[in-house]
Structures are given as C-alpha cells and as structure tokens.
Amino acid sequence: MGKAFEPPERIERADIVGASDEVLATPDIPFSETETVFRIKVAEMDWDIGVMVYEPEDPGRVPAGADGRKVGVFLTHGGASDWRSIEKLARLLVAKLGYRVASMTATGQATRSARTAPCAHRFGRTENSSPTTSTR
C-alpha cells in the first residue's frame, strides 16, 4: 500500500476559492429526489420521521470510495432548524459530485409548519393547531 494521506498544514484562501470554483464549474449531474416518511411508536407516542434521498438518475454516476463501495452521505440538521437548512448542500453534493445523499428530519421539525412540512399531506394535517411541536 502507498503512503497514508497527510493533510497540508495550511491551505491558502485563494486555493480554497479556486477549488470551489472548479467544482461549481462542472456540469450538473441529473438527479432525482425521493421523499420517504415513516412512523414509529416509542414511549406510547407516534413519531413521524421524514427522509429525503437525492441520487443521480444514472446509478453508474455514483463514485466509489477507496474501499470500492459507492459514496453516500447522511445529513441531519441542527436542533434549531429543519430539513430546508441542508437541502442546498444535499443538492450540491449530488449534482456536482454524484454522491447519494440522505437527509433526515425528526419529529417536531417536520410538523412545526404543517402547511410546508414535506410529510404533512400524508397524515392529513393541514394546519398546526398547537404552538408546540406535535406529531398529531
């Protein structure tokens, strides 16, 4: 085997901007977006979990890692935001690098605004009647 990767001690800003510009200039890879919502029952409560999967339309476009397996990324937002805060990053990773990306939203985040939540229509919710984050 070859020498192990050693990161550089310092990367100049101009080099970072140049690398970013190079990636952004590449043609977009056509991709699909698929929403999956499932419900689990824990602690005598129903919890809705929403997952968006972004993947190249051509599965052959997903690159392989050093181990030969296809590259995938799992993204989850911070507690103060929801799935929309990482949607641009998910689309960038699939469109420019061909990665398969899964983005998850936990209960409360998907139901905070029932009219805009990606899963609201599946459970018959049209408005959030409570100021708290509820699963019902």
What does this structure look like?
Helices cover 17% and strands 26% of the residues. It has 136 residues and is α+β, with helices and mostly antiparallel strands. The protein has a domain at 29-123. The chain is globular, with a radius of gyration of 19 Å. 17% of the residues are buried.
Order of helices and strands: HEEEHE
Mean pLDDT: 81
Unreliable stretches covering 5 or more consecutive residues: 109-115, 125-136
Distance between the termini: 55 Å
SS class: alpha+beta
User: How are the strands ordered across the major sheet?
Assistant: 1-2-4-3
Write the topology of this structure.
Elements: H1 13-24, E1 31-42, E2 45-56, E3 72-76, H2 87-97, E4 100-105
Parallel strand pairs: 3-4
Antiparallel strand pairs: 1-2, 2-4
Question: What labels describe this entry?
Answer:
alpha+beta; four-stranded mixed β-sheet; 17% helix; disordered C terminus
Summarize the structure.
By secondary structure, this protein is of the alpha+beta class. The protein contains two helices and four strands. Mean pLDDT is 81; it is low at 109-115 and 125-136.
